[in-house]
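Most newcomers find our protein records easier to grasp once they have seen one. A learned vocabulary of local backbone shapes supplies the integers on the structure line. An example says more than a description, so a record of this kind follows:
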Amino acid sequence: MDFTYSEIKSGLVKFLTKTEKYKAINSKVTDGLVFLINKNHEYGMVVISEFDFDLKTNSEAMTVIKKAKINDRHKVKMLKIIINNETPEVTKFADEVKVVTNQRILKENLLEFFPSINLIEFTKAKKEVAAEPTVEDEKANQETLNKFVAALKTNKVTTSWVILFLFVVTPIVLSLITIFTATSAEAAELNEHSKVITLIFGGTTYSLTILGGQWWRIFTYGLAPHSANIVMIMLFIFFIGSTIFLTTKITETRMGSYRMIAAFVPAYILTGFLASTTLPATITGGMLPVLSIICGMLLMNTSGDRTITAKFSKLKSVWPLVLIIIFSFVMGNAQDFLVNGVAIALGSAFSGLIKPRDKYNWTHGVMVAIIAAVLITGLVFLLIDNYIPAADIRVALTLKYYANHNIFGGVDGNNAIFKRIGWRVFLVYDDKNVLQIKRLPF
């Protein structure tokens, strides 16, 4: 008879508590994860899980292991039992043994550690009406939530702080520098065309990134300011900046720094690649795509999780979604909303691929399909004959700004960029030595 992971886990926990005298502690963070401790056993802590993870970097595991210590100097040996359909193996380290097993060979794999393992029994779970939560359960849930919220308030130098500095503080500083250093003519142009400042500081668009050869914009678009208007800057700080930081902290606390980086970086690059190759009239940059990616990562990480911290995280993801919708249309257009929608989808897809699971299933295929669809769409637009869009005044003003500040080779260098794009536009000084944008005659 085949048993589910939950049924195998229940039989193993019952055996370890009744026969081997372990004390079971269910994880308050991850469904299906169980810690068992016995100070008198060679293996002071046993961990039962569907997936492998590093015990020494898991804060909950490190808290539990202290309860298995006889004294402060006692070094607890750990036995990690991973029950899934992956290739069985037994790996021994100095103070830890990892056993990857399944229902068929579980007794054989564990006989070395528990000689009476043949006494274990598995039973099919009966379908019962869910019991009302007890007062103890509610207290435990509240304690878990309090610890989770407390972790969000810590001021450690983490990935969240790096993201805050790069994608919130940097755009704001660049906006303020531009406001206080721009000439009156430049200030007028920046106020009339708000997206120019986005392009100046690394925003991406088809004309400059693809035709103009400035590929680095695929990596810098998130650092770009969204506006040179002081009122809009304050709105973005208050609404988008604070929301990015809170959402990032929640996501990092749930996923861990390494998993978060592994999902965020490719989603960020692929979002910039798609926006650069497929939307010639759209300028992408600023905080909104970054918030969209992180929001997508959080939504996927909490999907299917019924723990109290997951419910809290899902509730906190509603506000970012509302802001993304409102600011996409108020500050941009339908194409900006499309870019942010793709960013949410990519954040979800990459987060889902690195989300620990016992085996691959159809949902992984959907995630791979989303990523492949975005990548192939961008490559198709990139590899077909270059389409030259109509001259965009925002791009022209960006190159004029660069020329005025002797960036990318001054006037000659930026005229070369116009030529690479394919526009009959150039920069030239007039009689008053003021740089002007002119059109070449046909």
Notes: The chain has 18 helices and eight strands. The longest helix spans residues 230-255. Residues 1 and 159 are 46 Å apart (CA to CA). Residues 128-133 have pLDDT under 50 and may be disordered.
